[in-house]
Amino acid sequence: MASPAGVPELRRVLAAEYRADVNDVLVVSGGQQGLVFVMRTLAEPGATLITESPSYPGAILAAQSAGLDIASVPSDEHGVIIERLADELDRTKARLVYLQPSYANPTGAVLAQERRAQVIELAARHGAFVVEDDWARHLGFEGTAPGPLFTDDPHGHVVTVMTLSKPVSPGLRLGAIVARGPAGERLRASRTADDLCVAPLVQEIALSFLTSSIWPRHLKRLRSELTARRDALIAALHSMLPEVRVARVPRGGIHLWARLPHGTDTRQFCAAADRAGVLVGDGRHFFVDEAPAPFLRFSFGAATEAQIVEGIRRIALPPA
């Protein structure tokens, strides 16, 4: 049976990208399992987790499943707003902060360089851990993504959760947790309570793919295709749904965050889209508190350019 931490050769490959020791890496069955495991292990039920807002609904569910209270702080095009994060850490005494520094779901925001050091400094000052959801690292369209937040943290306050399900295939349920120091020790000690190991065959498939010449060629093609799909979505919205305002053009990821005119009922909009055979994310689900405006999330990762254009056409049609 494989080690609960994962196949050593795969862990070495994953560790290299984070400039981590092989022993800092735990292989898990996908990013979602990693989030649940980290939150359940590093915080007691009833503790508070702070998340940027809007945020990934799966992280909110992971925190709720771990019995955590959730507090939110706003973000902008440069990521979480540092002053608000500092205030919330003071108020709640939270020991966990959930962030997506690269191409955040749903907004596509990238944490600004000057804010990265401030986040790590705040975590150290408050004795907190930053859970870095690094799901979109390989999905940058224009140049390379900033390095993982983990690589800027020498003291073990950043715990990174990464996944191969997004850049490789949704069917490859494999990810990793990268953690050093006390957080890493706690996670390693608890690993066997979660499951005995990720299936060795799945790990060997991932290792073979990551170490082959196919991997860089795949990423190049993936980024090109996602860029074309993003552009097709934006063009279709501008021409057929001009009332939907794109908050910002994402430079990576698979999502587009858009705002509807004031007073629009997002429930009705998404229900009508569903009846037309189009899945659109209701922006309400990405906020812990009341949504400040009517937002939608359009995802372009799983649809061709033709399907994207057809989907927007169906949404734009007046009701019969």
Automatic annotation (TrEMBL):
InterPro entries: Aminotransferase_I/II_large (IPR004839), HTH_trans_reg/aminotransferase (IPR051446), PyrdxlP-dep_Trfase (IPR015424), PyrdxlP-dep_Trfase_major (IPR015421), PyrdxlP-dep_Trfase_small (IPR015422). Keywords: Aminotransferase, Transferase. One of its GO terms (molecular function) is transaminase activity. SUPFAM superfamilies: PLP-dependent transferases (SSF53383). CDD domains: AAT_like (cd00609). The keyword Transferase applies. It comes from the Bacteria. Residues 5-315 form the Aminotransferase class I/classII large domain. This is PLP-dependent aminotransferase family protein. It comes from Leucobacter allii.
